[in-house]
Amino acid sequence: MSLTASGATAQTQKNANRISNPQRLLVLTPHAHSQTTIPPFLHSLTGNPVPPPGVQNDPPPNEETSEGPGHQSTATFAGYSTHPPLPLNTKYYSADIPIWVDEIPIPAVSSPASLQSQTSQAEQENNTPSTWSATFLAPPAAEVRAAIGAILILLQKPVSVSSAVPSGEATVERERVREGIAALKTVVKAVADVKRKIEEERGDSGIGDVPGLVILVGSEDKKGSKRLGENFEDASLGGGEDGGLREMAEYGVRWWDEELTGMGIYDFEVVGWDPAGAETEGEKRRNEFGELEGMPRIREVLETNEWAMASSIGDDLDSASGFLEDLDDDRLDLEIGELEREMVGLRMAIENGGGDGADLEGEDFDEDDLKVEQMEGLMLRVQAIKDMGADLPDSERRTFAAKAIRDIMKDL
User: Fold this and answer.
1) CB contact at 8 A, 41 and 29
2) Cα→Cα distances 193→21, 188, 211, 411, Å
C-alpha cells in the first residue's frame, strides 16, 4: 500500500514539474551555411535526422549556394518548425521544447562581377541581417518574440589560409576570409539586437533572460593554427602561452569571444562543435577552466533555462493573487503557516542533503551555508509579514500579506 502511495506521489510530482506549453528554441544560421550546419546539428541535438528541406525558386540574391554561384534554386530551412521537439528532463522539470529554425541572409563574399551585375543595389540592401532583425523587432512580431526561450546561432567556422598557398593567392584568400567574418559579425549583431528587445519586453517578469549561444560548427585544426599567427592581422590579441595566439589565429572560440567583447556583445557564449566528433560527445570534454565543451555544454545551457511561458506564469500568479486576497484572516494565517512549514522543510533538505556535513570541504560547506542563510532570510521575511500586518486594518492586512507572499513565492 505504501509503495502504491509512494508511486502515486512520485507521479504527481512528475506531472507537477511538467511544462506543458514551453517556450521555443530559436536556431539561426546564415543562409549560405544552412546546409552544412542545420542537418547535423539538429540530428546530434535531438537524435532525430533532418528531412531534406523545401526548395525555393528565388534564393536571396547575391548569395552562394551549395550548388555554386549562379544556381537558380536552393534548398532552405527558413521557417522550418516541424522537427521533433527537444526532450529535456532534469530533476526540476521535464519538457519537449519546440524548435524554430530561420535563415539570415548575407551577401556572398567576393562574388564574380557577372553575378553581381545581375543583382541590383536595392535587392542587396533588402537581404541583409539588418532587414531580418527589423522584421523580428517590428510590433507584429511581438507574439513571436514572447515565445522564444533561447537562441542558438550556428556559424560555419572560418577556415584559415594554409601557409602552403602561394603568397599572391593567399592575400586574396585572406581578404575573402576577412570579408566573410565581417558578414558573420553583422549576423551576430542583428540577433543580439533581437535578444535584447525580448529581454526588455519581459522586464522584471522573472524569466527575462534569454540564453544565447554562438556555435562554431567545424573542427579545431590545432596542428595548422600556429603557422598562421604571423599572417594574422591582429596577432596582438593572443593570450600568451598554450592556446592563446594559437586559438585566436584559427578563428576559434577564444578569438570569437574577444571579437564579440570588442563589439559590445557580452551576453552570447561562444561554443565550438565539431560534427565529425559528434559520436564521441558523450565523453564530455572540458576546457582549461573545467567547463564542458561541445554538445554537452550546449545541452547544459538549455537544461538550466526556464522554459515556462511568461503568460502561464502570469496567469498562475494572478490566480494566486485573487485566491489570497479573498482569504479571511484565519485562512490567511493558515496560508502563512503552511508557507513557513514548507520553508522549514526546504531548509532541512538543504542541511541534510549532503549527509552530516562532517566530510565536507570548506568550499562546499560555504556554499551550503550560504543557502541556509538565504532560507533564514526568507523565513525572517515571513515573520515580518505577520508582525507588520498585525497593526493594519483587516482589509489592508489581507492585501498586504497577499502581495508579500507572492513576492516570496517568486523568490522560491
Assistant:
1) no
2) 26, 9, 14, 29
In 82-175 the beta strands, taken as DSSP E runs, fall at 86-89, 94-97, 99-104, 148-156
Q: Given a cut of 90, is residue 214 above it in pLDDT?
A: yes
pLDDT in tens, 355-380: 444 444 444 545 556 656 666 666 67
Walk me through the domains of the chain, giving residue ranges and CATH numbers: 23-303 (3.40.50.11960), 310-411 (no CATH)
Cell numbers 598562421 correspond to 228
Instruction: Assign 57 a pLDDT band (cuts: 50, 70, 90).
Output: very low
As to burial, measured by CB atoms within 10 angstroms (0-12 exposed, 13-18 middle, 19+ buried), residue 101 is: buried
Residue 303 pLDDT > 70: yes
Cβ proximity of 273 and 41 under 8 Å:
yes
Instruction: State how far the alpha carbon of 191 is from the alpha carbons of 90, 153, 276, 338, in Å.
Output: 28, 8, 27, 45
The SS3 call for residue 153 is strand
**pLDDT single digits (tens) 96-142:** 999 999 999 987 665 444 444 444 555 555 679 999 999 999 999 99
What integer pLDDT is reported at residue 340 of this predicted model? 56
For cell 535578444, name the residue.
195
- 258 in Cβ contact with 236 (< 8 Å): no
Q: Mean pLDDT in the chain? A: 71
Q: Are 159 and 223 in contact (CB under 8 A)?
A: no
Amino acid 398: pLDDT: 63
With 60 as the cut, is the pLDDT of residue 246 above it?
Answer: no
Burial category of 190 from C-beta neighbours within 10 Å (exposed 0-12, middle 13-18, buried 19 and up): buried
- Give the predicted TM-score (pTM) of the model: 0.63
Q: CA-CA distances (angstroms) from residue 53 to 49, 155, 189, 338?
A: 12, 19, 27, 54
Asked if 161 contacts 173 with a C-beta cutoff of 8 angstroms, the reply is yes
Amino acid making up residue 195: K
Whether the Cβ atoms of residue 217 and residue 37 lie closer than 8 Å to each other: yes
Three-state SS letters, 293-338: CHHHHHHHHHHCCCCECHHHHHHHHHHHHHHHHCCCHHHHHHHHHH
* CB-CB neighbours of 276 under 10 Å: 9
Query: What residues have CB less than 8 Å from 366, skipping those under 6 apart?
Result: none
